[in-house]
Amino acid sequence: MGSIQRIDGRLHLPALATAHSHAYRRALRDQAQRHVPAGAGAASLWTEALHELIDNLTPESLYQIARVAYEELRRGGVRTVGEFHTIHHQAGGKPYESRVELSEALINAARAEGHRVCLVRVIQGRGGFDRQPEGPQLRCSDASLDVALRDVDDLWASYADQPEVRIGVGVHGLGTVSPDWLPTIAEFADRHHLPLHIALAETTADVEACVAETGKRPVELLADLGVLCDRLVAVHATHVSPAEAELLGQAQAYVCLCPTTERSRGGGLGDITALYQAGARLCTGADGHVLTSPLDDLRSLELSERVRLGKGIVLAPPERTPAEELWHIGSELGSQACGFDDAGGTVRLERAAPELSLVREAQLLDAIVFGASDRVFL
Ligand SMILES: [Zn+2]
To answer: Which domain, by its residues, includes 357?
Structure first.
């Protein structure tokens, strides 16, 4: 298949991509697995810690945390990161003197760890379907759509001559912008040829709130607004209906699944088969870095679908093995969702890794995808 090659008997694998990352959340890995004490007020320890982290983040601490996150991704075989960047301003919402300082910190951290990076500059106009932004959200909020798009434009212009950097534009849930912003954001992405990443249908509550405000489910709303297109990356999309999966497929949109997040939060199992059969281009994201294992993200697409459906192999077109298909999803499609044409090089393998003992050379990729840890990468 395509770019998986054997040269002199050795397997050469295109590097992996993670199309949806919030690098700063790597600092919260140890906060994600406990109940909040009764009466403490916050929804979870993680939410409380998240707000505290956002309140205190500086350009320097963001850079240092991101270095940790990106190093771990690199060790996991990743060379392309889609960074979904939501925090733009100082505490209270005052812009930095250089308005894109935090974006630059993330790009610098990714480059320092050897990644290509798509900085997806997320636009936020309100706190939720019926809320004004408040507290930590003020650091993420844009005073107007014009001002936000000017920031994206500035980033795009300053990195236009850097082949390892792409700028994208994003929306973090359909409640966070007024629906009438969406066509303008999509037109802007189209005009500048930018990836357009929109997190949607992550929970059933997201879907219900969208229906309550607009009368439409999330993907139906995007279709009505003319926002569905082949540069769209629908992130999460756990609770899309079969009809919405069809719409995403018809548009040849990408769908970035984040299985380690959904598993950690109990977010539910999406209908991956419906998306896949409709022709949506699947890719994966480490998202909140609760667990950073790009191999685990990949095999989870297949394995969680086997659990959901109670049957065997799901994602395998006639011309590829299941492992080849997952590698294609994890490398080429993930890179394309970040605006790059190819996987950007290959990863080297540690054939002597214990996971690969007793493994036949002809089935090496199967063992890597379904049975190995990140130790197999040099
Ligand atoms: Zn996310």
So the answer is: 352-378
